[in-house]
Predict the 3D structure of the following.
Amino acid sequence: MVRRTLGAVTAALVLAGCGTDQDQPAPTEPSATYELPPRPVRPDEVVLAGEPVVDGDTSFSLIGLSTGMEQLIGSHAEFEARNGQFVRIRLVVVNVGRSGVLFETGRQQLVLTDGTTATPDLTTMMVKRQPDTFDLGAGVRVEFDLYYDVAADAEPTALRAFGGPTLTDMKDAEGTDIPLQSG
């Protein structure tokens, strides 16, 4: 009888210790992040504060805006804006997909307050040694400038971003407008 009672008590204690923790959430640890060193803002640049926006398999973070630049200096040339002013957008693109994306800087459109758009100025992009078309590999991050030559009174409001084809937009015909929000 003592053995049965002792066995029953032992079994009850063992079963009590085998309970589930369904009532308590599993502890979560923050995912590790890279520590990127801060970069100084250029004298003629305004810091942009928008959140990253995804179009296709590409994440876009607009980080800087410069307007009203009447002339630019490259490593071997100095030249004036043909249409009135240069606008420069500093951005970071990240491939968030599993395959490479053919990224075309020439497709990224500057949206102006009157609803018109401008494409990057190829000559300025070359003189300032910025990329044209490149393969953005899976998980790759690239930071660069887009240069536009627009009318002196033009006011930029957004970047219409094209991040590559998707299953619902195979020709990458639809872009995503990202507002130019200063911080």
